């Protein structure tokens, strides 16, 4: 197992200290060290790939039409939110956060994507952050990267894309670190030593390998796990999503301010009752892991936004699931948000109120929530957000999601 | 400095050992390119006509296809067929690269497939993007660039990918009756990526005028490719200082022929070829000579390749490029002695675990590049901490699962690295604790990953 101890040993073998290592210098110390950049607030963007059914996660039980569309799904157990909406029990572990004002939802929101309902195109648009006037194939970068491009004194580790899924939202010219914590290179100590020799005279390979060891070092956890079998068992059980969240938290405790990763398993065409619960449980675990690992102080400066490419049909289908729709819901969590509230304007579910007579009607552009969050957290200029980060977006009034 | 044979294999081929009968001099390499396409015959890939035949039936009955159980079942069968052929085409692409004596042909194919990137998103694993390359690129690899360009611009997969199928002339018959407007996507990429290059001598007005000129060029899943006059903007259009007018496709073809010979096109693509094969900062005199040949021959690709291969820089210089993840995996399979036939018999799961999933982890989600500008060329984009860690992981794990017995690490180093092997690598491979780790070190070495 590669870890930080091995790295330090490895660097010893190269005959230099970590501080003097050329690659570490360029990466970890790039940019100004003045602490300018993004300040102290943390932003975590989670892309929920597969189209989460917002209507099942945050059920409009107070809407008189809901029950007719959802004869089985709508009757499943729920947790009370505000008298109109009820929350899926898959997120029950987050209910204390709701009570503490650290969990909110935005309902009936969507990207500008309409009519086609393809996951890939929908995710591309969500992550590119552009509108329908710009062909997606002409957009090379994602909105979080365009935001970073405007940060003075940006350091490479300011933003981190975590996990194996490509994060288009962070792609672009601004430097971003990427790592999948499951990249386990099971090298024997001997093989590692030999590779160090093989890479010794090739600076590019030497530095990439050294950085891989550094990034791969979830060392504190591993060391603790070695000594405590029960802990090792818990780690193994956590699954990839948990490891991604733990890794993101570790980075956010240090220099990283923005982290992005994705969760899959939302395309619930059938047996939604069971499948959505599993996926929500995963999301719940990720958020609880972030909160626990970040600790109260940093959690207090953290905003988590979980967004999906589109919502699902208002009516459940013949196989106990739902099909691709339009508007859905976004989840926000963290100590930096004004939670305990379902934001957004509710469009109603009467047939005339639906989009295309089948989907929840979007009443807000999901980008406006992200834009106001970035403005609230980092003080970005409205013009910049509306022209560069989300070209052509009309942000409108601040909905007050960020404290 | 390595020998011509290893330079041919690394820089212009798919790796060592060279296949029996592989040409190693520029003249022989060029002659092989003009010879019969043995690999296409031995490992065939479906053409888009085959795709269209299957998809048009359902497209013609779009309404019924939503409810008619027979059509629904048919749709399912077709989807599965497209997927199946996509996997078959992936196997064939690997098999050709492993078995080809004239491996330069497969490398050129990859270059042009990337130059004319199409990424079909949801259909990334279906046959469509392979069929596009097979139909529009492969037959013209050594012919006139203008012919390749024309085939590409007329191909359904490109028309769909760059939204040309949505483009309607603002004053066309269709726009007058039912609305619709211009989509500039194909026009822009045609100039920016496919020919003249970004920042070359064209303006936004040229893009707009070209988009108008291209209207009528479309693909319809029901009727297939056709020039549709009712979509065409009434001419004339002025692009790059020249006026194009006339009925049907003639003015489009006339423009493409001009564009293919344009000095900016000659320079842009000559440089891109040199960057791809030699160095991110290629020898200026080589690029100039290639561009000169391009203009002199009106874009004869075999002549341009000839100028590149016969230039003094062609077999000089260091291994400054990275094998991209695809090249890495293919070269490793070839180096392990696998044959095309073996790969053709791999089940899907094997393709996914050995090729597709590792490629994604190494940063090259196969047939699904990030945008129409294709994959990056610079070595720093590929030899990243994540990318290298995944290469090491692949090298340590898969050889032992693919061949039994594993080759002796030292013999493998001599076979796949030949005179490129560094003293450190040769020292290290024999000191590994297991054969599998010794083999892994060979494939993880800088020499194997550079080209």
TrEMBL record, chain A:
<dbReference type="Pfam" id="PF07394">
    <property type="entry name" value="DUF1501"/>
</dbReference>
<dbReference type="InterPro" id="IPR010869">
    <property type="entry name" value="DUF1501"/>
</dbReference>
<protein>
    <submittedName>
        <fullName>DUF1501 domain-containing protein</fullName>
    </submittedName>
</protein>
<dbReference type="InterPro" id="IPR006311">
    <property type="entry name" value="TAT_signal"/>
</dbReference>
From TrEMBL, chain B:
<dbReference type="Pfam" id="PF08811">
    <property type="entry name" value="DUF1800"/>
</dbReference>
<protein>
    <submittedName>
        <fullName>DUF1800 domain-containing protein</fullName>
    </submittedName>
</protein>
<dbReference type="InterPro" id="IPR014917">
    <property type="entry name" value="DUF1800"/>
</dbReference>
């Amino acid at each position: 197992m590669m870890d930080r101890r091995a790295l330090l040993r490895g660097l010893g073998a190269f005959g230099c200290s970590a501080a003097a290592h050329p690659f570490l210098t360029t990466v970890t110390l790039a940019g100004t060290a003045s602490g300018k950049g993004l300040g102290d607030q943390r932003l975590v963007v989670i892309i929920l790939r597969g189209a989460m059914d917002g209507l099942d996660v945050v059920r409009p039980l107070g809407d008189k039409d809901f029950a007719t569309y959802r004869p089985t799904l709508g009757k499943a157990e729920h947790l009370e939110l505000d008298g109109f909406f009820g929350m899926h029990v898959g997120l029950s572990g987050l209910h204390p956060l709701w009570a503490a004002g650290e969990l909110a939802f935005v309902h009936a929101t969507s990207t500008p994507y309409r009519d086609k309902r393809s996951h890939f195109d929908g995710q591309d648009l969500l992550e590119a952050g552009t509108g329908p006037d710009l062909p997606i194939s002409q957009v090379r970068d994602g909105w979080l990267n365009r935001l970073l491009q405007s940060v003075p004194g940006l350091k490479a580790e300011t933003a981190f894309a975590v996990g194996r899924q490509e994060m288009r939202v962070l792609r672009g010219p601004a430097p971003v670190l990427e790592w999948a914590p499951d990249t386990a290179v099971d090298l024997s100590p001997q093989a590692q030593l030999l590779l160090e020799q093989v890479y010794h005279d090739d600076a590019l390979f030497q530095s990439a390998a050294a950085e891989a060891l550094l990034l791969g070092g979830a060392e504190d956890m591993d060391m603790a796990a070695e000594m405590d079998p029960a802990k090792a068992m818990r780690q193994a059980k956590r699954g990839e999503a948990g490891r991604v969240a733990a890794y993101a938290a570790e980075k956010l405790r240090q220099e990283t301010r923005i982290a992005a990763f994705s969760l899959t398993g939302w395309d619930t065409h059938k047996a939604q009752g069971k499948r959505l619960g599993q996926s929500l449980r995963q999301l719940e675990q990720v958020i609880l892991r972030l909160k626990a690992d970040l600790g109260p102080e940093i959690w207090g400066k953290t905003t988590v936004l979980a967004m999906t490419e589109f919502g699902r049909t208002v009516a459940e289908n013949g196989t106990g699931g739902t099909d691709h729709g339009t508007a859905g819901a976004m989840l926000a969590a963290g100590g930096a948000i004004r939670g305990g509230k379902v934001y957004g304007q509710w469009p109603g579910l009467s047939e005339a109120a639906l989009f295309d007579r089948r989907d929840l009607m979007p009443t807000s552009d999901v980008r406006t929530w992200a834009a106001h969050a970035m403005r609230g957290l980092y003080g970005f200029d409205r013009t910049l957000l509306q022209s560069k980060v989300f070209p052509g977006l009309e942000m409108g009034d601040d909905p007050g999601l960020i404290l | 400095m390595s020998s011509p044979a290893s330079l041919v294999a690394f820089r212009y081929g798919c790796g060592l050992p060279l296949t029996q009968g592989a040409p190693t001099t520029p003249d022989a390499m060029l002659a092989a390119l003009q010879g019969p396409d043995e690999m296409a015959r031995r490992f065939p890939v479906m053409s888009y006509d085959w795709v269209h035949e299957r998809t048009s039936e359902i497209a013609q009955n779009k309404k019924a296809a939503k409810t008619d159980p027979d059509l629904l079942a048919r749709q399912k069968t077709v989807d599965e067929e497209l997927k199946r052929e996509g996997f078959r085409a992936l196997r064939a692409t690997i098999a050709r690269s492993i078995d080809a004596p004239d491996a330069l042909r497969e490398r050129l194919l990859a270059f042009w497939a990337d130059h004319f990137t199409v990424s079909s998103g949801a259909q990334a694993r279906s046959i469509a993007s392979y069929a596009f390359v097979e139909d529009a690129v492969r037959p013209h690899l050594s012919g006139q660039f203008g012919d390749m360009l024309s085939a590409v611009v007329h191909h359904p997969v490109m028309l769909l990918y760059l939204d040309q199928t949505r483009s309607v002339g603002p004053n066309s018959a269709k726009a007058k009756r039912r609305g619709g407007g211009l989509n500039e996507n194909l026009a822009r990429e045609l100039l920016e990526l496919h020919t003249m290059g970004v920042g070359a001598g064209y303006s936004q007005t040229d893009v707009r005028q070209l988009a108008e000129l291209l209207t009528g060029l479309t693909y319809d899943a029901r009727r297939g490719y056709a020039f549709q006059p009712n979509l065409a903007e009434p001419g004339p259009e002025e692009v790059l200082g020249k006026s194009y007018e006339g009925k049907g496709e003639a003015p489009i073809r006339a423009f493409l022929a001009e564009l293919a010979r344009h000095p900016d096109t000659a320079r842009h693509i000559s440089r891109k070829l040199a960057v791809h094969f030699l160095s991110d900062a290629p020898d200026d005199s080589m690029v100039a000579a290639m561009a000169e040949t391009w203009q002199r021959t009106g874009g004869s690709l075999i002549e341009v390749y000839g100028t590149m291969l016969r230039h003094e820089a062609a077999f000089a210089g260091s291994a400054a490029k990275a094998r991209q993840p695809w090249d890495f995996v293919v070269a490793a399979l070839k180096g392990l002695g696998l044959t095309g036939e073996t790969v053709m018999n791999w089940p899907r799961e094997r393709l996914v675990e050995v090729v597709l999933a590792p490629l994604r982890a190494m940063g090259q989600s196969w047939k699904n590049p990030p945008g129409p500008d294709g994959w990056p060329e610079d070595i720093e984009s590929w030899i990243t901490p994540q990318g290298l860690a995944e290469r090491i992981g692949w090298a340590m794990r898969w050889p032992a699962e693919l061949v039994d017995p594993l080759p002796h690490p030292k013999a493998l180093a001599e076979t796949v690295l030949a005179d490129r092997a560094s003293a450190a690598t040769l020292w290290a491979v024999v000191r590994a604790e297991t054969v599998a780790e010794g083999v892994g070190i060979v494939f993880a070495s800088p020499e194997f990953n550079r080209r």
